[in-house]
Design brief:
Myb-like domain-containing protein; Homeodomain-like_sf; globular; 2 domains
């Protein structure tokens, strides 16, 4: 049994579950490199019972998973600093798993396409293209 879960652990679990091809055993291995030990069944249970994104969730009832899931599907540009921070942290987690990623942020895709086209990319170039 893991004990009390932190928001950082929740973001890590949700980011890997929704954003990578990793299975629960692989998520367990990555989780245990960074946080207090948890078994794959603990992680899966935490996700299924408390973190799985909902459908048609009221704005005041949204959880970490709902915020990440909406970003994943709709690339929502959140105005709320807490929501922006959750997405930022999830994208940082996902940046560690480039070969396992299922989706990328708009800025990552712009930089990747520019790189593949041989362009030199600057922060100003990215900002001009993403608003």
């Amino acid at each position: 049994m893991h004990g009390k879960w932190t928001p950082e652990e929740d973001i890590f679990i949700v980011a890997l579950r929704l954003g990578t091809r990793l299975n629960w055993k692989e998520i367990e291995a990555e989780f245990n490199k960074r946080f207090n030990h948890a078994k794959s069944k603990d992680l899966e249970s935490r996700y299924n019972k408390g973190l799985k994104p909902g459908r048609r969730v009221a704005p005041d009832k949204r959880r970490i998973s709902d915020i990440i899931d909406d970003y994943r599907h709709y690339k929502v540009d959140y105005e709320d600093p807490k929501e922006r921070d959750i997405v930022r942290k999830a994208l940082l987690v996902l940046s560690e798993f480039p070969d396992q990623r299922l989706w990328h942020s708009e800025i990552e895709l712009l930089v990747l396409n520019a790189f593949l086209s041989g362009l030199v990319v600057s922060t100003a170039w990215c900002a001009a293209r993403t608003g």
